[in-house]
Design a protein that fits this description.
The strands form three sheets. Strands 3-4-2-1-14-13 form a six-stranded mixed sheet. The protein has a six-stranded mixed sheet with strand order 5-6-7-8-12-9. It has one domain: 4-Layer Sandwich (Deoxyribonuclease I, Chain A). With 261 residues, it is an alpha+beta fold. Strand 7, helix 3 and strand 8 form a beta-alpha-beta unit. The chain is globular, with a radius of gyration of 17 Å. It binds one DNA strand of 18 nucleotides through strand 10.
Length: 261
DNA sequence: ATGGCCTGATCTTCAGGA
C-alpha cells in the first residue's frame, strides 16, 4: 500500500496537478492539508472518477484537511476530540479514518506565527490535544499513523540554515517537545529518503528562490506505531512535485508499506 | 532543469503562510 501526505496549498488551485500526481504515483491513501475550500467546493466528484473516496473537514479559505483513499474509507472522525479553539472557533485541522486496514490521521498543526503570539500558545495546546487523541491507537495492535504538516522541524538540520531561525517558530524546544510527546505515546517517525541533496526537505518558500536554492524545511512528517513502522518498505519526499509553475510550496511525503510482512 | 510568491476573499488590497 502506498500512503502519502501533501499540503497542497489550495486543492482548487492544485486540482490538475493533484489528479495527475495520484495517477502517476499510484497512491492508495493521501492525507491532504490546506484544502482552502468549503466542504461543498471539495472536488469529490473528480476524485471519485479516479476511484478515490473522500472524507473532508473544511470550512473555507483557511486550513482544511482531507483523506482520499482507493482502498476503503471507514469510521471517519472529523476534527480533533477536545481540540482547542482559536479566536472562538474550532478550525478544520484534523480528520481520521480507517483505510485498507490502517487507521490514519491527516493533520495540519497551527503555524504559531511568532513565539510571543497567541497562535503559538494555541499551537502547543493543539499538540496536547493531538497526543491525547492518538494515545490509545498508538498503543494498539492495528497499524496506525499520523501524517501531515506538523509545522515543526524536528532537528536543527531540518532547516536550511538554523542561524536564521533565532526567535522563530518551528524550531523552539517546546514545539520539538511536542513531537517527543508523540513518541512517548508510542509513535516513531518514518524518515523519508531525499531524492536530491542530503536532507529530505518538504517545504520551500515561494519567495527568494527558495526551491532553486534549496532553502527548505522538513516539517511534513509521518509518525506511526510499531505495527505501522515495521511494515514500511520505503519512504521518500517527492520533490519533483515541487517543480515548475503551479506547484504547492510543499512536496508530498510518500510511504510504501508491506502490510502482510 | 528548478527561477526574484501564492491563494482566496474582505476582491485591485489584504491576511496568512513558515
Amino acid at each position: 500500500m502506498r500512503i502519502a501526505t501533501w499540503n497542497v496549498n489550495s486543492i482548487t488551485a492544485r486540482l490538475p496537478r493533484l489528479l495527475a500526481w495520484l495517477e502517476n504515483t499510484g497512491t492508495d491513501v493521501l492525507c491532504i492539508q490546506e484544502t482552502k475550500c468549503t466542504a461543498e467546493q471539495f472536488p469529490a466528484d473528480e476524485l471519485r472518477e479516479l476511484g478515490y473516496e473522500s472524507a473532508v473537514n473544511a470550512t473555507g479559505r483557511w486550513n482544511g484537511v482531507a483523506l482520499v483513499s482507493r482502498v476503503g474509507l471507514e469510521d471517519v472522525v472529523s476534527g480533533l476530540p477536545e481540540g482547542p479553539e482559536y479566536e472562538g472557533a474550532v478550525e478544520p485541522r484534523a480528520i481520521s479514518a480507517t483505510c485498507g486496514g490502517v487507521r490514519v490521521w491527516s493533520v495540519y498543526v497551527p503555524n504559531g506565527r511568532e513565539p510571543a503570539h497567541a497562535h503559538y500558545a494555541y499551537k502547543l495546546e493543539w499538540f496536547k490535544a493531538l497526543r491525547a487523541a492518538v494515545a490509545d491507537d498508538a498503543a494498539g495492535a492495528q497499524p496506525f499513523a499520523v501524517l501531515g504538516d506538523f509545522n515543526v522541524a524536528p532537528t536543527d538540520t531540518d532547516v536550511w540554515d538554523i542561524s536564521l531561525f533565532a526567535d522563530s517558530t518551528h524550531v523552539t524546544p517546546a514545539e520539538r517537545a511536542a513531537l517527543v510527546a508523540l513518541e512517548e505515546a508510542g509513535l516513531s517517525e518514518v524518515m523519508p529518503r531525499a531524492l536530491k541533496y542530503d536532507v529530505p526537505f518538504t517545504f520551500w518558500d515561494y519567495r527568494n528562490l527558495g526551491f532553486p536554492k534549496n532553502r527548505g524545511m522538513r516539517i511534513d512528517l509521518v509518525y506511526g506505531n510499531t505495527p505501522f513502522t515495521k511494515s514500511v518498505r520505503d519512504a521518500y519526499v517527492d520533490r519533483e512535485a515541487r517543480k515548475g509553475k503551479g506547484a504547492s510550496d510543499h512536496a508530498p511525503v510518500v510511504v510504501d508499506l508491506d502490510l502482510d510482512v
